[in-house]
Write a structure and sequence with these properties.
four-stranded mixed β-sheet, about 15% strand, single chain, 2 domains, Protein Transport Mog1p, Chain A
Length: about 450
């Protein structure tokens, strides 16, 4: 299976395809008008081209243009490279694209929520996972595709078709603009990543079916001839694997989620309006992962609620990072304790959120402000966040030793959560009392 190394994955990755429904197909911008002017990157200068053997992917690109119904505006440079050079290039990209404080802040959020060990290193963990699983990647900064030099056969074909779709996306819609890191942007970046990966995975199936039909003389199929359940078998197996590589399950699932959720989203678009409707989604991208997970909300353009950061109780705290996690990340969190289908139900009804982590000397503390669609959804969130802890009078508090308490309270369609502080030199006699007083005051605002 192909894994495109989208940077967004770090923060908390045939021509006669069927059309159905009555939507008016949008015009493909790659054919009907010039692409937008590429913005100059604000990051440090690009990495040099890694060492490797130059190869031509012109034949494969021609097939991908046909099945994806997008035209390439220029050739795509190809390089077969050694495993260590691919990972080194990816590591260099991380250093240039993702600020150190963003990685450290996200690590601290996951620690305080109790889903990773205290010595968790996000970058090292993701690179460990990608080193074992990454087959190739398209680099939008260099308009070049890098493929591991030992890939052959069906694995090579799948990698080429998937990554060449990313090249077409980049030439038409500029993927580096999509993936630029911004604070409070994980949910939107995850939605864009899901769109890109779902598109590339769906078109990859079309390419593989086209080659199979040519070789065997059989009827040519497309990804739309496969049921969603059949498509998800391999993705769900990859997400659920329990490896001995030390990768926390939530990180493994977060790298699979853009492919899984994005594929379902793109398949729904294709069934309604074919590839032109997928193209239209790049022009008017989904604003949240809620729109990815519930395609009807994308068509309705249901906008996320802008939720403010909550200051923690006590004085002297400095904010390290704030972010919007979105429904997809909430579902991944809930999957830590319940099956995926149950977690999806619990996470539904998301309206908006803002999670933040603060520091005071050696202390770290997290606040999370959630607005749900209605009171019933808020109660589901509270119950899912509580897990085995009892919920009484609209709140729960779990005393977690060195991590500090985990407390959440609900009123109406709002839920507020406090995790920590961890690293506190002296634990209070009742670690839940101050947090509960804070939560009630915030809910009363």
């Amino acid at each position: 299976m192909t894994r495109h190394a989208a940077l967004a994955a770090l923060l908390l990755v045939t021509a006669c395809g069927g059309h159905s429904g009555s939507a008016e197909p949008a015009k493909s911008p790659a054919r009907e008008k010039s692409p937008p002017t590429r913005a100059e990157p604000a990051a440090a200068p690009d990495l040099p081209m890694p060492p490797g053997t130059e190869v031509s992917f012109a034949r494969e690109l021609e097939l991908v243009e046909q099945v994806r119904e997008l035209h390439a505006s220029s050739p795509v440079r190809g390089l077969r490279i050694a495993d260590e050079d691919l990972i080194a290039h990816l590591k260099g990209s991380f250093a240039r694209e993702v600020p150190r404080h963003a990685l450290e802040g996200t690590e601290e959020m996951l620690r305080l929520l109790g889903v990773v060990p205290l010595d968790f290193d996000y970058e090292r963990t993701v690179l460990t996972l990608l080193k074992a699983q990454l087959a190739g990647l398209y680099d939008p900064r260099q308009n070049a595709m890098f493929v591991r030099d030992h890939l052959e056969g069906a694995e090579l074909e799948a990698t080429l078709y998937h990554e060449l779709v990313h090249a077409l996306q980049d030439q038409a819609y500029h993927l580096d603009d999509f993936s630029a890191w911004k604070e409070d942007n994980t949910d939107r970046a995850s939605a864009l990543s899901a769109l890109a990966e779902g598109d590339a995975t769906s078109a990859m199936y079309d390419g593989l079916f086209a080659v199979l039909a040519e070789r065997t003389g059989t009827t040519r199929k497309t990804a739309l001839d496969i049921s969603n359940a059949e498509m998800l078998v391999g993705l769900d197996a990859a997400a659920d694997v329990e490896g001995d590589d030390g990768v926390p399950p939530i990180v493994r699932r977060s790298l699979i989620a853009p492919y899984r959720d994005g594929l379902l989203f793109v398949q729904a678009l294709r069934r309604k309006g074919g590839w032109p409707l997928v193209n239209a989604a790049f022009e008017e991208p989904p604003a949240s992962t809620e729109q990815i997970l519930h395609v009807e909300r994308y068509f309705e353009r249901e906008a996320p609620v802008d939720v403010p950061v909550l200051r923690p109780p006590g004085a002297g705290y400095e904010k390290l990072l704030s972010d919007v996690w979105g429904e997809q990340s909430v579902r991944l969190l809930f999957e830590e304790s319940v099956p995926r289908s149950e977690a999806a139900v619990s996470a539904s009804g998301w309206g908006g959120d803002r999670i933040a982590v603060f520091a005071r000397k050696d202390e770290r503390i997290l606040t999370w402000n959630l607005t749900l669609d209605d009171e019933a959804a808020a109660r589901r969130y509270l119950a899912a966040l509580a897990g085995p802890s009892p919920v009484t009078s609209g709140h729960f508090c779990s005393k977690r030793g060195v991590l500090g308490p985990l407390l959440a309270a609900q009123s109406g369609r709002r839920v507020v959560l406090l995790a920590g502080p961890r690293g506190q030199s002296r634990q209070p006699a009742d670690p839940c009392a101050e947090g509960l007083s804070w939560a009630r005051a915030e809910l009363a605002r």
